[in-house]
């Protein structure tokens, strides 16, 4: 064997040895995605929540543009921690994804001091999905005609009225209302948004902050009504609903955002391919229509830009919690 042939043989052997040392998901990245394998989307909240609705719309759009099977798996509980940890425990092979909201990404780090994950380090930001304000909801049988009426009554009777919560985001929305108006409410935690919605609809709780997608069925059934929106200006989706700022809550603003993530250590080529799939999925007419139905605005951020949004949001909420004297767990 001449020197050139011997060198080529050595290179092939070296490459083969290197590939043998790679974990299986790294070696398979070049053939990603395998259409015979389903992609699993973990949702850290219950069925019917806005994160669940977005994930299911995304799954349908991903199947449409990439011809892959996508399944949604709900893992609610523990302030979204159960679902997030399920992503962290998954192999970084591109077949497990987390769709979540700013509740787990930027509010949990502020409201939960012993959080068992770091949203800036423990997984890979793929694509942002959308943004949405929340709506302050009162039960249909309430005597209050507006958010302003409720605020006045709560100010006159500290601790009498209850604000339901299902995540740190909805709890912070309650706390921010207290901080911007000087009222005192009793926070009542529920495991899922559906449970909190049912509580307000039945009169078990007085107030709940939630998005259009989650609350629409209750509004249509006449079981509750939105009396204020949490954005600084009225929302395009429901322009007839006034802001909390218009009704006595000075400087109140709360806008949630939603995004998709991969486990840490997912191969870069797999991340890049999934970003292509998601960008195409988010542009499909069906997904665009779903966002409009849920009262959401598209948010076009990915990778480092999405990570920077997350970092800024943590800083913003940390300042608000400290300056407002909001109690954390």
From TrEMBL:
InterPro entries registered for this protein in UniProt: BUG, Bug_dom1
rRNA-binding among keywords: no
Pfam families in the record: TctC
Keywords noted in UniProt: Receptor, Signal
Residues annotated as signal peptide: 1-28
Domain of life, source organism: Bacteria
Keyword ATP-binding attributed: no
UniProt similarity note: Belongs to the UPF0065 (bug) family.
PANTHER family in the record: BLR1237 PROTEIN, TRICARBOXYLATE-BINDING PROTEIN
Protein name listed in UniProt: Tripartite tricarboxylate transporter family receptor
Source species taxonomy: Bacteria, Pseudomonadati, Pseudomonadota, Betaproteobacteria, Burkholderiales
